[in-house]
Amino acid sequence: MFDSLLDKARAGDKASKEEIINRLQPLIISSIRRYYNKPKEYEDLIQDGNLIILECIEDYEPSKGVHFLGYVKTMLRYLYLDKHKTKIHHSLNEVVGDGEVE
Fold this sequence. Notes:
elongated, Rna Polymerase Sigma Factor, Chain: A, mainly alpha, 0% strand
């Protein structure tokens, strides 16, 4: 049943795309909790996840032998890990070099 829904979404059916996004909300939320657990930013992160799902619908190639849900999980993981990586703050008191000026 999910495959037929995906086929309709890939053909441009808006209702099918919305249905896929609604069905995958638990996956988005669990990915956020696992890879980027910042409750204050959940709303924005969920929207980012929804956009990733829409991109996955457009870019998915069944001929590559990867299941759609596996593809979505991987893309969500990279999205949230990348966001987490860019949010890592470094101490301004930390010594970066050995102190020598060239």
